[in-house]
Design brief:
By secondary structure, this protein is α+β, with helices and mostly antiparallel strands. Helices cover 31% and strands 24% of the residues. The chain folds into 2 domains: 12-165, Immunoglobulin-like (Sandwich); 178-338, no CATH class.
Length: 339
């Protein structure tokens, strides 16, 4: 079962200040496990270490270039530029969010490099890396900065994302719910009033039995589908399994984020249920960029009250950005054409 993938696209329209998305050059130029000799990535924007097992440390050699002319586009200052260049890392499986500082104010154009080491216990599944240039000081003393970022910590430029594939055996949505299986037909035969759907349905998301721990039930009546979801064999079956999971996870994510938003209480310090916080940990940037999970939940709750049409469109857009259905259909079609 494959991980839920995240792909975030940036737009100038998102920002009220001068911003240059995609303008930094970024690459992982080498990697090594357990301190052994360095290897170069074989694929652009991808480091794949899934074939290696039992390692303790992963070392990544990073290189980011700030091109000439970029700083003048996003900072009003001349001379000492109050910027910080970092590489941000996000592992969704372990909720790791870290940053590695390559350079900070004053900053200038040029190439910066560094080595970042990760412990095996801190990362699994996949690790996403993205270079980010941010402002480090507030600026409110000049009218010439009206079109520029003025607050410390504000994003002004980034670059292409790299992914480190670490393992391919993580469970789908395991931090959000349990996955179980049973024959829905047997359930209905023993209980005509069963909460389970008819036998022709493929899955059932159970939030009624235990609201604190959702369960995604897969229907064992579909004898050929369930093995495909659980243990696909070969490239074609794995790609087909990805499509099947996408078909299941789209409405599941939609339902989970809607319920989590409706039940969110901004006056409480904790989420009502842990899975609701996990949902917004995954989707907050897709729903409202640069929002915390809590703020995204509060805003979506308001949007659902103000306009269901616009709010559900936003949810649909964010789920598609998270699951990338077009990407997996394209891979599947390409594989079919090669058969």
């Amino acid at each position: 079962m494959k991980e839920i993938r995240l792909n975030k696209s940036l737009s100038y329209r998102t920002y009220p200040h001068k911003c240059e998305p995609g303008s930094l050059d970024f690459a992982v130029i080498g990697y090594s496990l357990n301190g052994e000799s360095s290897s170069e990535p074989e694929t652009e924007q991808l480091v794949d270490v899934t074939e290696y097992e039992g390692w303790d440390t992963l070392k990544l050699e990073l290189e980011v270039t700030i091109p000439e002319g970029l700083l003048g586009k996003v900072f009003p200052e001349f001379g000492k530029i109050p910027g910080m260049l970092v590489v941000a890392a996000h592992c969704r499986s372990t909720y790791l969010r870290e940053r590695f500082v390559l350079a900070r104010d004053p900053i200038s154009s040029g190439t910066y490099s560094g080595t970042w080491e990760f412990d095996a216990q801190d990362v699994t599944g996949s690790l996403d890396l993205r270079p980010v240039l941010v402002r480090t000081t507030d600026r409110r003393d000049s009218t010439d900065s009206v079109n520029y970022a003025t607050d410390a910590g504000v994003f002004v430029a980034d670059g292409p994302e790299w992914r480190v594939e670490i393992s391919d055996d993580e469970g789908e949505g395991e931090d959000l719910f349990e996955i179980r299986a049973k024959e829905f037909s047997d359930e209905h035969e023993s209980n005509p009033d069963s909460r389970f759907p008819p036998a022709d349905h493929m899955y059932y998301l159970d939030l009624e039995s235990d609201a604190e721990r959702p369960v995604l039930w897969l229907n064992e009546d579909h004898e050929r589908v369930l093995p495909l979801l659980r243990d696909p064999e070969g490239r074609y079956e794995k790609l087909t399994s990805e499509l099947a999971w996408n078909q299941v996870m789209t409405p599941v994510w939609t339902r989970l984020v809607t319920i989590a938003a409706k039940e969110y209480d901004p006056d409480e310090e904790e989420w009502l249920y842990e899975w609701q916080g996990a949902v917004f940990d995954e989707l907050n940037d897709e729903l409202y960029e640069d929002h915390t999970p809590e703020k995204a939940a509060e805003r979506l709750q308001e949007d659902l009250s103000d306009s269901v049409e616009q709010a559900t469109k936003r949810i649909d857009d964010s789920v598609q950005a998270l699951l990338e259905p077009a990407k997996y259909y394209t891979k599947h079609v390409q594989t079919l054409s090669e058969r």
